[in-house]
User: Fold this.
Amino acid sequence: MSLDVSRAEAHPHEAHGRLEHARSSRLAQLRALEETGQTADDHLLSTQKTAVERVLKEIEEAFARIEDGTYGICLGCAKPVPAERLEILPYTRYCVACRRRAA
Assistant:
């Protein structure tokens, strides 16, 4: 078993904490966008809100992966996502190589 997988499995509370932080940051961003109200550039505001809502959904999906034991496993290749990537982007579903292929 890879160091990355065992590290994620050994410290699920760390992943959970990073996800909680990401969720609270995105919720604050969403509240700020909603408080901005209608502006001259409603399309930009709408696009920003949609992006934040999409990340919030990805964060919730990451919590589910922690619960079902698949957190830290790439959905593309089924290999471990490097711990460093999970530290930076805790809700990621893919390793860098699979994410690049999907783009």
